[in-house]
Design brief:
Blueprint: E1 11-15, H1 20-31, E2 35-39, H2 43-55, E3 60-62, H3 70-84, E4 87-92, H4 107-135, E5 138-143, H5 156-175, E6 181-188, H6 209-221, E7 226-229, H7 231-241, H8 245-252
Parallel strand pairs: 1-2, 1-4, 2-3, 4-5, 5-6, 6-7
Helix pairs in contact: 1-2, 1-6, 3-4, 4-5
The structure holds NADP nicotinamide-adenine-dinucleotide phosphate.
Amino acid sequence: MTGSFDNPGRVCFITGASSGLGEGLAIRLVREGYAVGLSARREALLSKVADRIRAEGGTAAVYPCDASDGPAVIDAIRRCEDTLGPVDLLVANAGMSLNTLIEAFDASGVEKVLDVNLLGAVYATEAVLAGMLERGRGQIVAVSSIAGFAGLPMSAAYSASKGGMTNFFESLRIDLRGTGVDVTVIHPGFVRTPMTAHNRHAMPFIMDLEPAVELMVKAIRKRKKSLAFPWQLAGLVWSLRILPRPAYDWIASRIDRTKAPEAGGPTGQSS
Ligand SMILES: NC(=O)c1ccc[n+]([C@@H]2O[C@H](COP(=O)([O-])OP(=O)(O)OC[C@H]3O[C@@H](n4cnc5c(N)ncnc54)[C@H](OP(=O)(O)O)[C@@H]3O)[C@@H](O)[C@H]2O)c1
């Protein structure tokens, strides 16, 4: 097991580690020298990831819980710290995507997306922040999305959750200046994971999992403040942002609504 940066004995807690980006990050961060605490709801999948890590000579332990259950998240991180040691790196990655369709508007769906994506990351932060401040070192990585840069059609809940996440962790990053605790906010575009597997709409500049994870690990290693990738999609969405609103609305409304999954379905538009 070789790492391109040296973190012997350091501990990373990753939420949403049972599949996709979280699973990829867990495996990759172990190769960087971290012992990893893996969390998500599906314990069997977490155990498979942990077995793979152990087979490669790494250290992993699983802490199943629902990211939207604050006390459960805090308890999971406490148990991880009891077993593996203080968390040096938190990767708040757990997330869900659900289309918000005006025809079937349902506040409870919005609430669920905000609970998992935004508050889930906040609960995990509560669990690690005091310890990091006491030790004068640590890093919190928030996996937001390019969807947080603008209100995307049929994605009101998802865009709100990711926009909220970006702004929340940006605020924290400023407040934590000089404390030794760094915050990295990551905005992926479309990546091939289970979350995007059922999307029927166009996913411009979609990336494979491995190069996406590499970019994320590089940003974590450099303790970058922010990363948005791929640059083509990030640039496109940023430039749409500065257009006059009528022009933005016209372009954004070109997305084919007939290709949205059923409201309440397991997946939806994500980026
Ligand atoms: N793929 C993309 O194109 C893309 C683009 C931008 C941002 N992102 C963000 O990247 C993160 C990872 O997504 P992914 O693409 O890797 O999708 P994924 O494979 O579906 O992974 C989502 C992870 O979140 C966990 N999760 C979902 N709901 C949860 C809950 N209530 N409690 C605890 N864990 C929960 C899932 O585990 P369980 O189901 O086992 O709980 C899973 O491990 C998400 O925050 C997503 O919004 C993805």
